[in-house]
Amino acid sequence: AQSVTQPDIHITVSEGASLELRCNYSYGATPYLFWYVQSPGQGLQLLLKYFSGDTLVQGIKGFEAEFKRSQSSFNLRKPSVHWSDAAEYFCAVAPGGYQKVTFGTGTKLQVIP
Amino acid sequence: EAGVTQSPTHLIKTRGQQATLRCSPISGHTSVYWYQQALGLGLQFLLWYDEGEERNRGNFPPRFSGRQFPNYSSELNVNALELEDSALYLCASTRSGQDGDTQYFGPGTRLTVL
Fold this sequence. Notes:
The complex is a heterodimer.
Chain A: E1 3-5, E2 10-14, E3 19-21, E4 24-26, E5 32-39, E6 43-50, E7 56-58, E8 64-68, E9 73-78, E10 87-94, E11 102-103, E12 107-112
Parallel strand pairs in A: 2-12
Antiparallel strand pairs in A: 1-4, 3-9, 5-6, 5-10, 7-8, 8-9, 10-11, 10-12
Chain B: E1 5-7, E2 10-13, E3 19-24, E4 31-38, E5 42-50, E6 53-57, E7 64-68, E8 74-78, E9 87-94, E10 104-105, E11 109-113
Parallel strand pairs in B: 2-11
Antiparallel strand pairs in B: 1-3, 3-8, 4-5, 4-9, 5-6, 7-8, 9-10, 9-11
């Protein structure tokens, strides 16, 4: 069975600092991987997705994620965090497409001035 | 272009009743996904409809059902409501059932079961 682990429940970073949110997955084959962001004002939004090809994936809002098969990881990064990035971030894995997706428990990001 | 819309925003029911939640995808989108976000259980995939057909469902009992109409809007029905059905129900749509499409979410319906 597929599973996703987001080891950090809560992360605090200063505005302008770099960010890395960790995600580890368990799946027998090459999975479909996603990062979502959920904020009170904007609901749930897809940040980026990896299906195949280039292992470094660019998303919206300046985010990127790197698929590392050897480490079963799909960490999300942003070089400089803005106060508006404060939200909850979910990593997800699926065997194919958006169906049967399994979500991680989420990481809450706090941004301090 | 209007986004994904869901109605109602909030819904309060009592145990044993039935709830009906509605979702209108972005115009031109044919695929609709339903998710449940319950306290303590997190986000879970519920159902996927594409071109009027149910294509896949998550690990939910049969009392969770739905349909997709010819205009691609969708309805989620939850029968015999239980307290643990209290959750935020999110609907999302994609242009087609193809993997490469981007998924867009609605604001959700908050269901409270008393």
